[in-house]
Amino acid sequence: MKQITLQGYAKVNLTLDVIGRREDGYHLLETVMQSVSLSDMVHLRTVDTPGIQLSCTNPNIPCDQTNTAWRAAKLFLQHHPQNCGIAIGIEKRIPSEAGLAGGSADAAAVLAGLNVLLETGDSMETLCELGVQIGADIPFCIQGGTRLAHGIGEELLPLPTLPSCCMVVCKPPVNVSTRLAYERIDQEPLLARPDTPAMLKAFQNADLSEISRLLCNVFESALALPEVAAIRAQMLQNGALGACMSGSGSAVFGIFPSSVQALDCLEGLKKEYPLTFLCLPVEKGVG
Q1: Which of 11, 17, 106, 171 is catalytic?
Q2: CB-count exposure of residue 255 (10 Å: 0-12, 13-18, 19+)
Q3: Could you report the per-residue pLDDT of 37-52, keeping only the tens digit for each?
Q4: Which residue of the set 106, 122, 137, 171 is catalytic?
């Protein structure tokens, strides 16, 4: 029996714009994504019984073929058939239905981990080609760091590293269906849209204040969730340089110049929102 444990890191969207739609119905995105230290632990081991076994510490997460980690393992084994089976254990910390790509992070860790565990030698490009067949965020979750994404999110361009900072990520007790979020985008005019060229310039200048000022997500204004607005306001009142909803929600993140301010904000938010985390930017998607 061989085994390996990897971390699958969450992501936040510093900008997120919907710029069109493909003929097959997929929306075209332009988004700056950042990996953060909030992560799930993914344990992989070979077992004698053929097939895929999956367990998760969160009882609300399905452990069948609908799980992205299970689907990632199945796809990998279709490309690299084995005589053994694979057991996957997920220690879940990334909140679900939060816009933090928790499921994609798990799938990315499975693909990267099986590549090492089974010594198959796939390149990162090959792993990303497999990943996008399961979910548009998975290539980013494999590569990680700071990247500009186009297409459905799979066309990735590396950006300069986010300047040193702390983040607070807070998930309110409201869940957002990604499908319904996109339906709202299709129905509502997008009044607040990111200035992507300005954001890219801010990264070139390593200007954390300007990066924070330019945070923008079209889903935040389209959905107009009261809980998101309240958390964002509290973060700004506690010294955040900027705050924004991630993905299609409902998690909110704030960027802080120091850990002292971030910890003060964390303590205040945790009293009402238990799923609140202190994070740092990380430069990889799986570790």
Answers
A1: 11
A2: buried
A3: 999 999 999 999 999 9
A4: 137
